C-alpha cells in the first residue's frame, strides 16, 4: 500500500509540473465566472434575501407580522395575520386567514398542500415575502425570503484572492463506490452522504486529498484549510470539479472556491467540512471571508 501511495505521489507531482497552463484568457474566464456567481446570489432564488428559518411544530403554526403568531414574519412587510401551517406526520398544509393576500404564482391561496412536493419547492408569496418548506432530518421548517432584505441591499460584492493558475491543480480520481461520508450541518444534524471518490493532488511538493460528494460526473467538496482562521470563512468553503477523464484525472480549480450560504445569511443550514477534508495547507485562492454570520 505504501509503495502504491508513493507511486501516485510521484506521478501526481510529475503531472503538476508538466500540467497544461491556461493562457491569458484564463483570468478573464475566472472573472466572468465570478461575476455570474455574484449575480446568482442576488437573484430571487439566491442566498442574500433569506429572511428567516422557522421550525414547525406538529399541528397548527400560525404566521404573519403580529408577534402573537407562532411564526413571526417581518412586520413591515407582512399583514398581521396570514394564516397557519399545519404539520401532520411529515405533510404540511397551508390555510390562509380571510382576506390574506397569499399567492401561488398569480393564484390566491385559501388552502393548499405545500409539502412534500415533486421537483422544485412550492413557493408562496405575500408582498415582498417568499417562502417554502424544507426538511432537515426528521424536522421541517419554513424558509423565508424577502426581496427587500437588508442583506441584499447592503451587499457590495465578495473579495477574492488574486487569480493564479498555480491553484488550478491536476488531481487523480480514486473511486470509492459504496463509501459514506458523515456530514454535519451547522444545526448539529448528521447525514451520511454517498462519496463517489477521492481526489489526490500535490501542493508545494506534498500530497493532499479531498473526498467528494455528488456524482462521478459532478464532484462536490466541502473543505477547510489553514486560511479559515483569519482570511476565509471559518466554516470552510465549497468547491466543484468535473468528473475524471478517460485516464482518471481532473482539475481542482481553487480559484473557484466559494463561501457557503451561511457566510451571507444567518438563516441557512450549511454543511461543515468532514474530517477527511480538513487540509493542513493554506489555500490562498478563491473567495475570501464575507460578513460575520
TrEMBL record:
Keyword Aminoacyl-tRNA synthetase found: no
Pfam family, one: DUF1684
Spans traversing the lipid bilayer: none
Signal peptide: 1-21
Record keywords, A-Z: Signal
Protein name per UniProt: DUF1684 domain-containing protein
Organism per entry: Spirosoma endophyticum
Amino acid at each position: 500500500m505504501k509503495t502504491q501511495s508513493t507511486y501516485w505521489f510521484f506521478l501526481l507531482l510529475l503531472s503538476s509540473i508538466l500540467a497544461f497552463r491556461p493562457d491569458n484568457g484564463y483570468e478573464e474566464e475566472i472573472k466572468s465566472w465570478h461575476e455570474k456567481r455574484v449575480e446568482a446570489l442576488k437573484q430571487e432564488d439566491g442566498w442574500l434575501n433569506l429572511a428567516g428559518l422557522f421550525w414547525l411544530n406538529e399541528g397548527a403554526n400560525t404566521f404573519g407580522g403580529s408577534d402573537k403568531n407562532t411564526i413571526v414574519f417581518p412586520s413591515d412587510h407582512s399583514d398581521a395575520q396570514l394564516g397557519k401551517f399545519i404539520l401532520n406526520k411529515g405533510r404540511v398544509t397551508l390555510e390562509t386567514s380571510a382576506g390574506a393576500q397569499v399567492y401561488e404564482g398569480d393564484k390566491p391561496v385559501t388552502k393548499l398542500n405545500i409539502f412534500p412536493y415533486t421537483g422544485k419547492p412550492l413557493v408562496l408569496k405575500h408582498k415582498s415575502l417568499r417562502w417554502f418548506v424544507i426538511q432537515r432530518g426528521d424536522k421541517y421548517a419554513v424558509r423565508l425570503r424577502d426581496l427587500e432584505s437588508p442583506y441584499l441591499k447592503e451587499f457590495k460584492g465578495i473579495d477574492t484572492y488574486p487569480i493564479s493558475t498555480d491553484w488550478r491543480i491536476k488531481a487523480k480520481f480514486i473511486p470509492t463506490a459504496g463509501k459514506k461520508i458523515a456530514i454535519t450541518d451547522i444545526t448539529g444534524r448528521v447525514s451520511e452522504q454517498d462519496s463517489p471518490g477521492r481526489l489526490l493532488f500535490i501542493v508545494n511538493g506534498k500530497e493532499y486529498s479531498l473526498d467528494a460528494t455528488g456524482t462521478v460526473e459532478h464532484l462536490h467538496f466541502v473543505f477547510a484549510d489553514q486560511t479559515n482562521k483569519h482570511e476565509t470563512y471559518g466554516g470552510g468553503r465549497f468547491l466543484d470539479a468535473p468528473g475524471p477523464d478517460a485516464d482518471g484525472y481532473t482539475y481542482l480549480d481553487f480559484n473557484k472556491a466559494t463561501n457557503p450560504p451561511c457566510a451571507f445569511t444567518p438563516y441557512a443550514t450549511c454543511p461543515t467540512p468532514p474530517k477527511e477534508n480538513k487540509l493542513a495547507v493554506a489555500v490562498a485562492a478563491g473567495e475570501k471571508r464575507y460578513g460575520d454570520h
